[in-house]
Amino acid sequence: KAGVTQTPRYLIKTRGQQVTLSCSPISGHRSVSWYQQTPGQGLQFLFEYFSETQRNKGNFPGRFSGRQFSNSRSEMNVSTLELGDSALYLCASSLAGAGTDTQYFGPGTRLTVL
Amino acid sequence: TQLLEQSPQFLSIQEGENLTVYCNSSSVFSSLQWYRQEPGEGPVLLVTVVTGGEVKKLKRLTFQFGDARKDSSLHITAAQPGDTGLYLCAASRWTALIFGKGTTLSVSS
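Output (structure tokens, whole complex):
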């Protein structure tokens, strides 16, 4: 069974640009969550999608948004990039969500904002 | 305020030594999870502890959940270089995982 895949693996952008990251969950998983990982703040929850609906949201500004498609694939968008958005963005999938069953993480997308 | 406090933040030891990593909170949890993350990869679940006082073993790793379900510990016996990585504890809040900041372990031969 293929794991969670994320594309691209590395990305370099400049301040003010926008970026879209993609996540393909494990087949059959309907819940997709996104996390931001930085050295200073650690791993922080961004949002979770289930059956194309945002079901849960962390404490991040509106510049961070996402969506989920009917095949459960998910995209995350960050607009008007800031230097502080440089981070590893991790996607995780599960059957029904973190509180119910195991989340499986992808390898992440390393975003560098210059 | 961090919901889950992990200590120590960094640990550098020699192969064969024992170590313990702690995860503490003032909140009560229905369960706690431990993950290990290696460079260039996402976290991988090691164990979930559910019952207060529970002890789970995974080869040389021993996980314990506090009696009051507010804290947990991870003990590694006879550490090996392959144990090197970032160890994270996490608790679920509905459909989100809340993580501690992690303990970076380096085991040298």
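Chain B has a mean pLDDT of 95.
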